[in-house]
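BUG: 3D viewer hangs when loading the predicted structure for this chain

Environment: internal workstation, default settings.
Expected: structure renders.
Actual: progress bar stalls at 90%.

Input used:
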Amino acid sequence: MSGSGQFDFDKEVDRTTSCSDKWDKYKGTDILPMWVADSDFQSPPAVIDALQERVAHGVFGYTHASNTLTDIFVKRMAERYNWHIEPEWIVYLSGLVCGLNIAARALSEEGQTIISPSPIYPPFISSAKFAERPLVKAPVVLRKGRWLPDLDEAEKQLKAKGGLLQMCNPLNPGGTVYRKEELEETLAFAEKHDLLVCSDEIHCDLILDGDLKHIPFASVNERAAQRSVTLMAPSKTFNIAGLGASIAIIPNPNIRARFNKVKRGIVPGVNVLAFTAAEAAYQHGEAWLQEQLCYLAGHRDLLMREINALPYLKLEHIEATYLAWIDCSELPVDNPHRFFEEAGVGLSPGLDFGNRKFVRLNFGCTRKTLEEALRRMKAAVARLD
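Structure tokens produced before the viewer hung:
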């Protein structure tokens, strides 16, 4: 909980007048918006200060990343993950979703398969559709209380070698943090089937268990690096998603050239305020991040206790992210999303991810909001008895 720290995560910020996608969805209703993955926390003060200073400059022409931002990011990868990257590996993007779509087109050829976990964050599935590539789903299953894609099941569906394997680490939804041996198994699968790998690691900074560490897929060994595109961003970490600054790390020069060729002339450059926010966040946001992680871990623990104390619902341990993947398969209703929405809690429907018997709850909110959402959910479930 906040209160003892430097930053106030309990602060209620009115987002109803800010053209917020999250809050405007239920505008004029008594439904708490707990769906799309942005948080309700004000960004770190250093980010706000840097933006105000840059706005005061008053000129907002075409721009590029500063050497300082690149140096900070290279240093961050080395210090946090023992991953030593080169500046020329970095491709800046105006969003992570466009990175997924570029990778789908650039890292697979016409007729080649894209393999994706399922259930998964919807842009994984749509990227294959937009690229007009056949999609093979690797069903995400429980293994000792952790959600992981079953690559053996995916293998049964493959008809030829080549194509793209999509990863999400930490997993969204599910919150699983991949262990090194799991990454090595993924690499072995990719090598066996001659697959390139796009790893979405946008939630890598939001590890809630202190004994776990994020391991980038490309850092496992040189073989992994040379067949991979890694996507990262400060957006979820520091709640600056609306500014649009993401990073692709591509060690292999041929893959990087293919990626840039597809990107050229279609994906706009990153804007000056996004670069400003990213640099300030990475350079000065660590204390804020650590307090946020403690606050979110408290939310996670509350959710685990409250949801698993209810009949019909089940929530597995969330290792990372502020997104709870709640199993409603025993709930005696046809549409769990609509059921909770009618109770005043606006969650993400599991169908969007690939399983209609689940809902995803965004707990990147104040404790007051979370407690009210849980109160409404408990009351709704109690009315079923």
